Amino acid sequence: MIVELTRFRAADAEALLAARPAMVAEFAEDRSGFLGARLVRLVGDEWLDIVDWESADDLTASRAKGANLSGIAAFFAAIDSLVASEDGEDVSSSGR
């Protein structure tokens, strides 16, 4: 499993949280290999989006699609700025 970590700033928490359910639903319908997502509120206006993917290829394909659907676009529009983005392999249950 691949874990995508995206840290960003969003001052309008209400808009961000209102857009979240549609974004997750559209990812589930439109993004092959999407396993789920968690959103963590950090200090101030910072957030951490944790998204699980079956494979690195699924994550790459999702990134290529961008904000292709209205719910995804609304969530992305609520983000003021990107702080950091990275991904890696979840080895917690693989025995490694």
From TrEMBL:
Q: Which Gene3D superfamilies match?
A: 3.30.70.100
In terms of domain of life, where is this protein from? Bacteria
Name of this chain's protein: ABM domain-containing protein
The record lists the organism as Agromyces agglutinans
